[in-house]
Design goal:
The chain has 100 residues and is α+β, with helices and mostly antiparallel strands. The chain has a single domain (11-99), classed as DNA Binding (I), subunit A (Orthogonal Bundle). Helices cover 26% and strands 14% of the residues. The protein has 3 helices and 4 strands. It has helices spanning 11-18, 58-64, 69-79; strands spanning 35-38, 53-56, 85-87, 92-94. The strands form 2 sheets. It has a two-stranded antiparallel sheet. Strands 3-4 form a two-stranded antiparallel ribbon. β3 and β4 form a beta hairpin. The longest helix has 11 residues, at 69-79. The termini are far apart. The relative contact order is 0.19.
């Protein structure tokens, strides 16, 4: 598979529903204002496929830049002095948006 991959047309609505209309990283409401985000950036070898895509708020996507999802969560963790909360729906550790 090349970097472009195959993404079903209905994937974006499914991601929006699965994420409960919230940013994958900060969990703030997307309100239909969101970016399609690559968890591992294409420039870092990530693929444009359903397993590497999520929806994020513009602020998180732009701040994440070329970082992987793990690197971005680590950055957020450092900025929040290790204060964590776990969101069971995604199995990810998330942090309050206001402290970003």
């Amino acid at each position: 598979m090349n970097q472009m991959g195959d993404v079903p047309e209905d994937l974006y609505q499914k991601m929006f529903d699965q994420q409960n209309g919230k940013c994958y990283y900060c969990k703030m409401s997307l309100k239909r204002d969101y970016h399609t985000e690559h968890k591992t950036p294409l420039c870092r070898g990530g693929l444009h496929d359903k397993d590497n895509l999520c929806l994020s708020c513009p602020e998180c996507n732009l701040r994440k830049n070329r970082r992987t999802e793990e690197e971005f969560f680590a950055l957020i963790n450092g900025e929040n002095n290790g204060e964590k909360r776990t969101v069971a729906v995604y199995g990810q550790t998330t942090f309050p948006h206001s402290k970003m």
